[in-house]
Design brief:
With 199 residues, this protein is an alpha+beta fold. Helices cover 22% and strands 28% of the residues. It is built from five helices and twelve strands. A five-stranded mixed β-sheet has the order 5-12-11-8-9, with no helix packed on it. Strands 6-7-10 form a three-stranded antiparallel β-sheet, with no helix packed on it. Strands 1-2 form a two-stranded antiparallel sheet. The longest helix has 14 residues. The chain is elongated, with a radius of gyration of 23 Å. The N and C termini lie far apart (61 Å).
């Protein structure tokens, strides 16, 4: 822990929340002199206080330890930059619109790398009068299947969980354009772009 960086970060969070040193100190049961000492970089909070500090600031202990906030400003809130984290142990699916520290079943997860689907891998997309009917002949066995499919537009995401021995099929409201994404247990994360046909 870099005490100067951590101190600056504590000060940043405290002032952003409009708390005095005394008010922060009272929330975590320390003296205001201790808070002042940390903010000046003359010492660090005891490890036993980090969880309480993180809770007050609405952040993570790792952020306090690193002394840095990674704001990911360029990707903040942009659904087209969505990342899918898939746990190979339990099948949990976690999404984030920018890089995140994600763990599941005791393992650190990394975002799945999307790959544009080849012609023979693409999902079938059929216009059925104001909706898209999405289907696939993809194998759906316990060893090899699509675990989820998602439709991503610039401002929203719709996700459809899939299970072995189901036929992949679902209806989707027809938007102006977007991206279909799906995760196969063997092939990984694939995508294809879709848009309504102009009449």
């Amino acid at each position: 822990m870099d005490q100067i960086k951590t101190g600056e970060l504590i000060r940043h969070f405290r002032t952003e929340m409009k708390l005095t040193q005394k008010q922060l100190a009272e929330r975590i049961n320390v003296s205001d002199k201790a808070v002042s000492k940390w903010e000046l970089g003359n010492g660090c909070p005891d490890i036993s206080l980090l969880a309480a500090l993180a809770e007050v600031f609405g952040t993570d202990v790792q952020v306090l330890l690193s002394g840095e906030i990674d704001k990911n400003e360029s990707e903040k809130g942009n659904m087209k930059k969505i990342k899918f984290y898939v746990c190979s142990n339990c099948g949990n699916i976690i999404t984030a619109t920018s890089d995140a520290a994600v763990t599941c079943c005791g393992n650190k997860l990394f975002p799945a790398e999307p790959r544009k689907a080849e012609e023979n891998e693409r999902l079938n997309v059929e216009d059925i009068g104001g909706e898209w009917y999405i289907s696939s002949d993809h194998e759906m066995t316990k060893e090899h299947y699509i675990t989820f499919a998602a439709y991503v537009s610039d401002s929203s995401i719709m996700m459809f969980k899939q299970y072995p021995e189901w036929n992949l099929q679902f209806n989707l409201p027809m938007y102006r354009s977007g991206r279909l994404m799906w995760y196969c247990t063997k092939c990984g994360l694939l995508y294809q772009d879709i848009r309504p046909e102009r009449k």
